[in-house]
Amino acid sequence: MKIYFLTMNIYGMGGTVRTVLNTANHLVDQGYNIEIISLFKRQRKEFFFIDPRIKITVLHDVTTWNKEGKNIKVRFGNFLLSKKTKLIHRDEEAIHFFSLMSDIKLYTFIKTIKNGVLITTRPSFNLFAAKYANKGVVLVGQEHLNFSIYPKGMQNSIMKYYPKLDYLLTLTDDDTEDYKNIFLDSNLTVKKITNSIPDIEPIKSPLIDKTIIAAGRLAEQKGFDLLIKSFSKVVEKHPDWILKIYGIGSEKNNLQDIILKEGLYNNVFLMGATNNIQKELARSSIYVLSSRFEGFGMVIVEAMQCGVPVVSFDCPKGPSEIIKSGIDGILVENGNIEKLANSINYLIDNPSIRLQMGEQAFLNVDRYSTRNIGNKWEGLFADIEKYHKRDNSTEWSATTSS
User: Which of 59, 102, 178, 203 has a C-alpha 20 to 30 A away from that of 350?
Assistant: First the structure.
């Protein structure tokens, strides 16, 4: 059974890339036949480890495209790149990356897939597969956000086209319940399979450094503006503590302005990207998640794996499912920067509680190990093999060795 993952850019550094590769690396190690379709390649080298047994198919390599070329192929390609997408939903948050060129490349490749399982990793890809994939392909869409987060146009399209999928995978109990209710009268199967962390030997933090970290895209969703303003209240009480924010994005200049305005240039640092967040977590004592909303909060799990307690806004919908507030971390009223600062100060002022929460976090996070989550993926493929055989001539084998 060939398994395809359709991604935006598997060479990037985002949370979706990380979780897709955690899953794909695990599955190929179990003998599954895995191919990752990357619509774009925007970096010359992958940010995260990709098992060499995984086939990577890049549809448009931005790193090698010569915009200045004068031959007919390049000139026609540049024309297509200059035209807006016709096939990707207008509410796709990264719509500016898509073009008529990406439409043609994606549509053409999707039509070459005649059977197997196609796993799509963002709403616009779920919709694309529902509309254009061949009937012999089992379609598995992944949903990383709650339905209520989406604009009305996207919600309408989701309700119209998601029933054409075979499975919809969600990350939290709340999301699972919501989507089951939405598609109650359809044949769509909604299942919860959370993100996972790699089964690697964790580097536990001693929680003694006067360092707090946060990580993610420098985008409004991640709420780093709120975090910086909150941290000014931490610095008033603890001027020797620092905050490091890892990530890149469009909000960098705005965040830098807030740092200067708040006078935090000696305490708050925009660190750029890192391909080893575990190493940085091992040098920190607290992780803070300040997102306005989150589908799951992968980095919360990664912090817990390093024994680092997390202070997080109780934003919809993921953090409250991961963090047991007061036991392995602290949940704070969503958007309340005063309470966020108070909770950070509480863990700074009480190192013994910080250690206790960190140890409990380390123990509790095992439920998100790739070993455990991988079993759920294998269960999904067993269901597909059992219920979605297209005909007797198609061999639906769970592994390449069968």
Answer: 203
